[in-house]
Amino acid sequence: MTSTDTHVQPLAHRPRRADARRNYDKLIAAGREAFTEDGRGASLENIARRAGVGIGTLYRHFPSRQDLLEAVYFEEVDDLCRSAVDLADRPQWEALVAWLHRFVSYLATKQALAEELMTYRDREDDVFKSCRAAMYAGGEPLLVRAQEAHLVRTDTDIAEVIQLVGGIAKIQTAEPGQLDRLLDMALDGLRYRAAEA
Known about the structure:
This protein is mostly helical. Helices cover about 70% and strands about 0% of the residues.
């Protein structure tokens, strides 16, 4: 598996010039922070200020709020998928569990961003289909490796595992570490048991 196997193909293309790329990266980072902290209340002016650029620079890279939202979402998904590649050298079960914990953390902090994207119906299907396909492509090799090593039951697939993990990520809790504990309990159900054979 290579890192290119799991990358999301963004609708907004990253600039090639170094200075434009720096501004793009600063805007993505500022957008990520603002949407995580303020959700739908995040203003484009505030994002430009956080990035240390003018509002005109923001609009040159992202002509609309939707374009910025999608770019932030794609970058987040791409980071998550890249982390699956980074974990591939670990033992099979450890790699899968580590990636699923990252996945829960990712989902738990991105609810507002996903909700905001859902308000834009014209490109929603393309955005979520592309991201879902990338997540499946990122996690599936880790799951298959663990199944082939007889560490994970073989009567499931990455779609079911992501559905399970996604449900856990949506649980509202104020107790630190509770989502990780719930995920660990759920993952115990994925383990291969000799009796199943």
